Amino acid sequence: MQKTPAEMLVGSFKNPAFNDRACLVDTESLRRISYSDMDRETALSAGVLKSFYIRPGDTVSLLLENGLHFFMPWLGAMRIGAVVHPINCLYTTEQIIYALKLCETKLLVTQERYVWDFKKNEPSALLRILRETFPTMPVLVMHDPQRFESSKKEMGSGWLGAYSWSTLAQFTKHYDHVTHRYPEDPFQLICTSGTTGKPKAVVQTNSMFWPDVEAIIKTNKLSGEDRALLINRLFHVNAQVTNFFPMTIVGGTTLLAPPDPEYFLETAVKWGATYSSVIPPTLKEVLKRGIPKKESLKNLKFLIVGADKLAPELHREFMNRTGIRVRPGWGMTETLCWGSGTAADEPIMYGSIGKPFEITEMKIINTETGGEVAIGETGLLIIRGQNVFEKYFKNPEATKKAFSPHPKWEGWFDTGDLCRRDSRGTFYWVARASADTWKVRGEFVMGPLIDDYARQHPSVDDAMSVPIMMDGETESALCVVKKEEIGADAVLEWCEEGRKSGKPEKHYKIKKIIFVPKIELGDTGKKSRKKMIEIFQSA
């Protein structure tokens, strides 16, 4: 019978061969947690959660920053068969309340900073709203990461019905078992980014877990000798599936570090990291800092990059300057995390998203005819496979729409991404159909194509195009980050010359330009066209 994520992870914690190995290391606090420690601590956390009569299938939500404290309730909930729901810790109060309602939370685990106003020395506004909105929902308060090992009662606990995690842990019996669940049962709910409307909760089932994690292990030839540097946020699947899950299964070590590009390579060298997972903006920021000698980076074998478009120029420059292989891939929360990647023995194609995993089928179709597009042509990416989800939580309408890309392809998941494929079978991401495209006088405009062209100007450091309203019509505009001094007219002239020569297409006319200090990122670290539209409108 197929094992659940909890059974596989706890199996590693109890593996005699891994007993004293470091499972987790916090590079800031220098705290090390071995595999046997993880077994004991997650069993204690499971006991704490069970004391609130959490049953298999109940939702336990986590509002926690990155840190060692995150892992215990996260994995403890899995041990007792609960459905864990990590909340985006960058959410506003309104978004937090929405997510808790959406996922039908039975219990919330959070930390001091969210429930206690340290300036006013009183319960936070969020805690008051939580109590008003969910008067019977238990709220467990953990210490903030920097106070993780403190023996003092958590600030905010005891107020308005909030409980102290550390106090309960002193009197709770360990739950040293794993509650078995079936393959079709969920182990996690992850909310989508909501770039096209209200977030939806993706139901990640036990059956999705091992196919995708195994694909990551095989594609990248991971072993117990590897050390993964984790800098992405743990509320998102990238950090979970690319770093912690595979490392724990094979007996490797996960290194927790802040997401600061200035110290990324320095931290990787100091702690002997062999790989990491980053987003393209991180590569760009790392290159702005001093690059250590290639010899010192020899242990950092590769980086897995996804979650946003990776420009070929940036891809090539980073590899040339650092000597580190950058293996691109693609995936979504709906595919657990990854659907494609670049294998260790495959050539790296700059700007690509690699090839589909063995467990997935990926097609690019014409949405009007339903036929597959020719090699090199852009179309809608659809996918099916063992790691693809089956439904959104209690949202049958959204689920039905997601699996109906065209009558010819019923049952295939509509990713909403526009892609193309070359003759080698390598895929390339072009744009997000719903978030990156708009119509100008009936013609589709793909924003990322304008962005790519604008960034080729020697005085432009970064750029993002946006749709705007001018004289009652939708037009295209451009937000520009300067590399050196340049005027708006010069950038407009560059874009106009490119448009007239067909790079980009002739209807991609830029009507207005503003200069900005940076291109804003969204909650998951991707560049946010939605935020840049707001900035343009307020300029």
Notes on the protein architecture:
With about 550 residues, the protein is an alpha/beta fold. The chain folds into three domains: about 30-180, Rossmann fold (3-Layer(aba) Sandwich); about 200-430, ANL, N-terminal domain (Rossmann fold, 3-Layer(aba) Sandwich); about 435-539, ANL, C-terminal domain (GMP Synthetase, Chain A, domain 3), CATH 3.30.300.30. It is built from 16 helices and 27 strands. The protein has a seven-stranded mixed beta sheet with strand order 2-1-13-12-14-15-16, sandwiched between helices. Strands 4-3-5-8-9 form a five-stranded parallel beta sheet, with helices on both faces. It has a four-stranded antiparallel beta sheet with strand order 19-20-21-22. The protein is globular. The model has no long low-confidence stretch (mean pLDDT about 95).
Question: Which keywords apply here?
Answer:
Rossmann fold; GMP Synthetase, Chain A, domain 3; 5-stranded parallel β-sheet; 25% strand; alpha/beta; 539 residues; 3 domains; single chain; 7-stranded mixed β-sheet
